[in-house]
Design brief:
single chain, 287 residues, alpha/beta, Rossmann fold, nine-stranded mixed beta sheet, two-stranded antiparallel ribbon, globular
């Protein structure tokens, strides 16, 4: 049975796929929250989903029982949902893929995603992730862009991924897109490891803004900015109450400030990033 369920088949203009998965790739829920925020902000409409039956061990990723209207019970399965929306201010569409990292048959799962992307003529895939790092909560969130394609790395001022070790579904998905000849990149937000258990609106905000910049547009983020300020105040209070924690954060700030001074000249603007992405994709199409 085909695990892909189409609700409708959208007609899209030069779509870019933006993907995020809850689980190993999603420290502090930052990546999935960023996709959820963009879906709401741009009014993305679901058009397909990937049935979880083949890809999850339900004793590990259990379905959730929800109660609606006080008495109606329904089950929520760990389904992967695909939705689409126009990119504001551009003659281009974006496809959002949002789900939970599957526990089984990753190669089949990724082939299903690549199949959807090929049918929709997706021009590039951007995976969003968040990782725990030795960074202070008091500084702007660092978002690192990586890619496998050397030309894409050069054009978008990304880094060639040199990571070796265990990988998540995003790593396997990038490999599947590379095999299919579809360019792909990743945006990773660094989350302070000492507040790993709390959702980070600050990291979510950084991923939302960087993704919008890559697509050559902007998104209203006032509520995320307010949530980020409240988050930082709350963590400040917790850290201030512990002398060892306060000293540790101060050391992280010193190290981070030194690194920023070394890297400051290498930063690229969102507008330039979007222009270079568009130029790269035009050249890929032979225009």
């Amino acid at each position: 049975m085909d695990p892909l369920r189409w609700h409708r088949r959208p007609r899209l203009r030069r779509p870019v796929l933006v993907a995020a998965f809850a689980g190993w790739n999603d420290a502090a829920d930052a990546a999935t929250s960023a996709v959820d925020y963009l879906v709401r902000s741009w009014g993305a409409r679901p058009f397909a989903e990937i049935d979880p039956e083949e890809f999850f061990d339900f004793t590990v990723s259990r379905p959730q029982v929800k109660v609606e209207d006080g008495d109606t019970r329904r089950l929520e399965w760990p389904t992967t949902v695909l939705s689409a929306a126009p990119v504001p201010g551009r003659r281009q569409d974006v496809v959002f893929l949002r789900g939970t990292e599957p526990g089984l048959r990753w190669r089949t799962f990724c082939q299903t995603v690549v199949g959807v992307a090929s049918e929709l003529q997706v021009e590039m895939m951007v995976g969003l992730g968040a990782l725990l790092a030795d960074v202070p909560h008091t500084r702007p969130v660092k978002v690192t862009g990586t890619a496998m394609d050397p030309e894409l790395v050069k054009r978008l001022d990304l880094r060639r991924s040199r990571y070796e070790g265990p990988t998540g579904i995003l790593g396997v998905l990038h490999d599947a897109f590379a095999t299919a000849g579809i360019p792909s990149a990743s945006l990773w937000a660094s989350v302070p490891h000492y507040v790993a258990q709390s959702p980070s609106p600050k990291a979510t905000l950084a991923l939302v803004e960087r993704t919008a910049g890559l697509l050559g547009t902007r998104v209203e983020t006032m509520d995320l900015e307010v949530a980020s300020s409240a988050y930082e105040r709350q963590v400040n209070e917790l850290v201030a109450a512990d002398e060892d924690a306060a000293a540790y954060v101060a050391r992280l700030e010193e190290v981070g400030d030194d690194e920023d001074e070394d890297l400051g000249e290498g930063l690229v603007s969102g507008a330039k990033l979007a222009d270079e992405a568009a130029r790269f994709l035009r050249e890929q199409r032979g225009e």
